[in-house]
Design brief:
The chain is 27% helix and 24% strand. The chain contains 8 helices and 17 strands. The longest helix is centred in the first third of the chain and has 16 residues. It has 326 residues and is α+β, with helices and mostly antiparallel strands. A hairpin with a 4-residue loop joins strand 9 and strand 10. The protein is globular, with a radius of gyration of 19 Å. It has an 8-stranded mixed β-sheet, sandwiched between helices. Strands 12-11-13-17-15 form a 5-stranded mixed β-sheet, sandwiched between helices. Strands 1-2 form a two-stranded antiparallel ribbon.
């Protein structure tokens, strides 16, 4: 590895020293241990085959790539060994039963941002842990007791929360393990960088179009300051960047067919994000209520999502509520 002039030995406690004990901590640690093979396959690109090969369709007709399905099966094996009762995955229509006597359930998106597989853009995975219950995954985000993500970029980073704040670890290749690099991440209440897909603006409702127009007007408009824009096309990439540097993200509902309820999956994308962001002092909303209060009516329900800096999320909600509050 290239050594920079000020480099020294890797610092930070090993994740095995941080995530100790049984229950959700053990499951989160098992998920963390399963990430290195995914990173290595991503890094190999097309050397051994095409990870972007279309091998199927998921429940809503999205194309499944070879890496999507491979990551799904890899994580299912890891969760079975961890004693998880059942799993809900974006890559399977039905709930997968693993250990009938298990005390915990896991919802996951094995590869988030898979549209960018093979082009070097950020990818990731998301998960949440819930106590085993008869209603399975059809309950509000208030049931989530732990959540986390992996960000695959120029580094591999693992963020998690057990309800005691949000923490981030980085992969130490020499140790073959993650090390804690940021503890109790706290989001700034104001945002200077906003992530959204500008190509969809014309389909948004009027209040949201007013918000983005005022945003773009910068210091010459009613907001009185300039903003930067980012769009990584991967919710995990945006989450990781916002936790590190602040900002806000939105993927709202719009007028297009199939987008009336947003496009992100409630149970295994938005609920984990909401848990992590709120543990860091931010907000996560569907535009009318906190994500944690939404109850899914189907396993793969979609929802609008706005998350990040508290003040900016509240500002967006004000514009959505009507002219008198925008």
């Amino acid at each position: 590895m290239l050594k920079l002039p000020n480099d020294g030995p890797a610092t930070g406690r090993l994740l095995s020293q941080v995530l100790t004990g049984d229950g959700p901590a053990a499951i989160v640690h098992a998920i963390a241990r399963a990430q290195a093979p995914l990173m290595q396959r991503l890094a190999a690109g097309r050397l051994h085959g095409d990870p972007t090969e279309i091998v199927g369709l998921n429940d809503t007709g999205d194309k499944q790539k070879a890496l999507d399905v491979g990551a799904h099966h890899h994580m299912i094996a890891a969760l079975r060994d961890a004693g998880v009762r059942q799993v809900l995955s974006e890559e399977a229509e039905a709930v997968i039963e693993l250990n009938p006597d298990g005390a915990w359930d896991v919802a996951m998106d094995p590869i988030d941002g898979s549209g960018s597989i093979g082009i070097g853009a950020p990818l990731g995975m998301l998960f949440s842990v819930l106590p085993a219950a008869p209603e399975g995954f059809l309950r509000t985000g208030e049931s989530v007791v732990a959540a986390g993500y992996t960000s695959f970029g120029h580094s591999m980073d693992f963020g998690w929360s057990l309800g005691d704040g949000t923490h981030i670890a980085g992969w130490d290749a020499e140790a073959g393990e993650f090390r804690l690099v940021r503890e109790n991440v706290t989001l700034k209440p104001t945002a200077s960088t906003i992530a959204y897909n500008a190509s969809n603006e014309r389909h948004w409702e009027p209040g949201l179009q007013r918000w983005v127009a005022d945003l773009r007007a910068g210091r010459d408009g009613p907001r009185g300051r300039d903003f930067n824009m980012r769009w990584l096309a991967a919710a995990v990439g945006e989450l990781h960047r916002i936790l590190l540097n602040g900002g806000a993200f939105l993927y709202p509902a719009d007028r297009r067919k199939g987008y009336e309820n947003g496009r992100l999956r409630l149970v295994y994308e938005c609920m984990p994000i909401a848990f992590l962001v709120e543990q860091a002092g931010g907000l996560a909303s569907d535009g009318t209520q906190p994500i944690r209060y939404r109850k899914p009516f189907a396993l793969h329900d979609m929802t609008p999502l706005i998350f990040g800096a508290k003040d900016e999320v509240e500002t967006i909600l004000g514009y959505l509520a009507g002219p008198s509050k925008g």
